[in-house]
């Protein structure tokens, strides 16, 4: 697929479990075109979150490769680090992974991971502060705040700017998390069971928001165990026995 924005090719992931090994991914491959909404379904424990983390450069596969815009995300297998390493800053591949997570990829998880001591505006604005130098931030602060206010209005939270997470409903907290993921204008939004912690009404509202983002060109890769949620995507893949299959 020549227009693929994201490609996974033969991705394997194994975890050491004492004297045994758990083979979670056994050669997963997929292509995601720009502007596409792809859902990956799988049972609990099937490895779908692990796959999403690898696609989003949060985790490292033992074998296989992920390409973003035609360039490899991970170092060749013999050069890969599977845990944070003090010399990662010297590796071009590791610096690229960090840059992708900061600028090209956005993440939404089942649990919101908001900072309880910050209000809504601050929780989103902090995502723009990450990676900005102390010297550069004063000049960036005003446009970053403008972008933050715009995305919070888009997700329907302009009247909740000063509220802290404990003062919000589950659906509102997840919309804060989406705004935080979008504030740096990512090329791909990765969503890991985004409705899994919400009731049916809040889940429907959240999916309507994701569909609206997709309608204006946002590329989305989502994992879920819910067939009704997966059906909202353009294309559904199933993760079974460590391998992706067309749904």
Task: Describe how the helices and strands are arranged.
Layout: E1 4-17, E2 20-33, E3 37-41, H1 48-55, E4 63-68, E5 71-72, H2 92-104, E6 105-108, H3 120-129, H4 137-154, H5 170-182, E7 188-192, H6 200-215, E8 219-224, H7 227-230, E9 235-240, E10 243-246
Parallel strand pairs: 3-8, 3-9, 6-7, 7-8
Antiparallel strand pairs: 1-2, 1-4, 4-5, 9-10
Helix pairs in contact: 3-4, 3-5, 4-5, 5-6
Task: Describe what you observe in this structure.
It contains 7 helices and 10 strands. By secondary structure, the chain is an alpha/beta fold. The protein has a single domain (4-246), classed as P-loop containing nucleotide triphosphate hydrolases (Rossmann fold), CATH 3.40.50. Strands 6-7-8-3-9-10 form a 6-stranded mixed sheet, with helices on both faces. Strands 2-1-4-5 form a 4-stranded antiparallel sheet, with helices on one face. Helix 3 packs parallel to helix 5, helix 4 (137-154) packs across helix 5 (170-182) and helix 5 packs parallel to helix 6. The protein is globular.
Keywords:
alpha/beta; Rossmann fold; four-stranded antiparallel beta sheet; 10 strands
CATH topology: the name is Rossmann fold
Shape: globular
Radius of gyration, in angstroms, nearest whole number: 18 Å
Give the CATH class: Alpha Beta
Q: Gist?
A:
With 247 residues, this protein is α/β, with parallel strands linked by helices.
């Amino acid at each position: 697929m020549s227009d693929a924005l994201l490609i996974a090719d033969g991705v394997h992931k194994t975890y050491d479990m004492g004297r045994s090994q758990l083979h979670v991914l056994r050669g997963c491959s997929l292509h995601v075109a720009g502007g596409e909404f792809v859902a990956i379904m799988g049972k609990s424990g099937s490895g779908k979150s692990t796959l999403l983390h690898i696609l989003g450069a949060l985790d490292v596969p033992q074998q296989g490769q992920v390409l973003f815009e035609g360039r490899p995300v991970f170092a060749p297998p013999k050069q890969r680090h599977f845990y944070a390493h003090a010399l990662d800053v010297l590796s071009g591949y590791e610096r690229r992974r960090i840059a992708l997570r900061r600028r090209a990829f956005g993440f939404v998880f089942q649990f919101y991971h908001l900072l309880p001591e910050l209000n809504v505006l601050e929780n989103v604005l902090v995502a723009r502060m990450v990676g900005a130098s102390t010297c550069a931030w004063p000049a960036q602060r005003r446009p970053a705040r403008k972008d933050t206010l715009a995305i919070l209005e888009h997700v329907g939270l302009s009247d909740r700017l000063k509220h802290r997470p404990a003062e919000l409903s589950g659906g509102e907290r997840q919309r804060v998390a989406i705004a935080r993921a979008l504030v740096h204008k990512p090329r791909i939004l990765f969503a890991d069971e985004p409705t899994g912690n919400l009731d049916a009404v809040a889940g429907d509202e959240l999916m309507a928001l994701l569909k609206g983002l997709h309608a204006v060109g946002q590329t989305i890769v989502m994992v879920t165990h819910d067939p009704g949620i997966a059906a909202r995507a353009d294309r559904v893949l199933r993760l079974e026995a460590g391998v992706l299959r067309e749904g």
